[in-house]
Amino acid sequence: MLIKLLNASFTRLYKNRLFWLFTIFSMGLALLVIYVQYNNMKRYGDIINIEQIALNYSTMIGIAIAIFTSLFLGVEYSDGVIRNKISIGHKRENIYLSNLIIVIITSLFSYFLYLMVVFSVGISVFGMDTISFMELLGKIILVFVVIMAYSSIFTFIAMVISSKTITAITSIMLAFGMIMAALTCFNILAAPKTIQEATMVNGETKIQTVLNPKYPSEEKKKRCQILLDINPAGAMFQLAGRSAETSKVLPLYSFGIIVLFTGAGLLLFKRKELK
Amino acid sequence: MEIILETNNLEKKYKNFRVLNHTNIHIEKGAIYGLIGKNGAGKTTLIRIICGLQEPTSGNYTIYGVDYSSNNIISVRKRMGAIIEVPSIYGEMTAKDNLIEQYKLVGMPTLEGIDELLKLVGLSNTGRKKAKNFSLGMKQRLGIAIALASNPDFLILDEPINGLDPQGIIEIRELILKLNKEKRITILISSHYLDELAKIATHYGFLDNGSIIKEISSEELKKKMEHKFILKVDNQKVFVKYFEQNKISYEIMDNQTINVYGKYNLSKFVRDLSKENLIIDEIHEQEESLENYYINLIGGGHVD
User: ipTM for the complex?
Assistant: First the structure.
């Protein structure tokens, strides 16, 4: 029965304008980033890391997934199609899982297309010699896992909330919220231990190094790092190289999110009273 | 007669508000069952429960004899098609694409039959027009085509003529009759357009405040709705003798009341009885419509 649902969903996906917009956006973005970086290289002599370009999209893909998921799955409620699926005998669990699979595949496909453009066009323009292929592959696999976590969160929202508008607003706000939260954690973690302070002594400016009052305690740093690791946006920022060391627990947290949100979503959707 | 759908003391509560109250309906194979009730009577809630969208608070129901809580209910639902309030269609797709989608959902081995289905519901010439731009009647017909994609033998239509223009109503009515007669599909149709239901239903269920207060076949109902005189008499026997001698259709309602069916002139009828020295205490002339019958039923007026 899951196969039938997937078969129908892929047919709809193929004919869906939103899906093509998502894929065109991903490829267009790749070309745009390459063009901008190429100009920077020409004008300022910047050294461009193709790996950086490849991983940068991951930091904002959450917003794209939120938009796609809320609109693509939101239609199931707004057009009443979900009622049809249930009344003709499809199990609710299968309906939920088929939608999750479609969102995951579309999101991964979109990122894959971005990578294809970056590597096919970017390598010929910038070359590729900064990090090893295996290291990059490892990071891309981790990005794929975090994309799955993102997909499970936004599928949960789209399947539990019956209103397409509320789903879209909630998902997009959450996607931005996760990015903001990740950046806040980064700022806290990046705070220097000491800062330079200028004081006037007898009319002379004296600069001295003092302890940064905003420097987080070890406990706070630990909490921030955990929040950063759990938050898919935080994970993406780390993978894109904004922190010195990528946390080794990222895939564990991502799998945790997938299991937690999918489990809760299945439970709630199974009990949901549909109108 | 095989029973397709049977509900037993079905109850549905939302917090403290009881929408369905020990609802019992029985739908025979081949019937067009008109579910009649005013807005808020519980028609849509009953249909949502039957379609598996909501769970009953208590009671149970069976479809083709399979209890709703059984695992087999999933396979039984595959024999059903339904439109609940509004048709389930993707507005961004054409009529044909919507049907292709439904064919895949129900797992039809080929896409053969889609053109035939579109022809059946009169949508074969809609081309690339998106369903969201269809008229309400076209959407309803597309909804019915989608519900028919799995070749169901039980179709549930919730308020299928709501908001339709007269032409749309005629088209849906003819389609329903065609499906019932030619494809032998059992149909449950809810509506508060009583005149329309009267044109197609073979059985009726009257729902009021969440309870079925009467189930009746159209044959029985037709008899009840015939033009009639309600006579109050003391000596029923002599009246019965006279009616039988003169081949007048009648029915004894209680020990004082006799219903006389047929299109008679009131004054002539009374004169004829007087000639035979048949004294009437009271006489009322009544020509009931389905509407009157329903109003009497829910208002507690004289029904039987």
Answer: 0.84
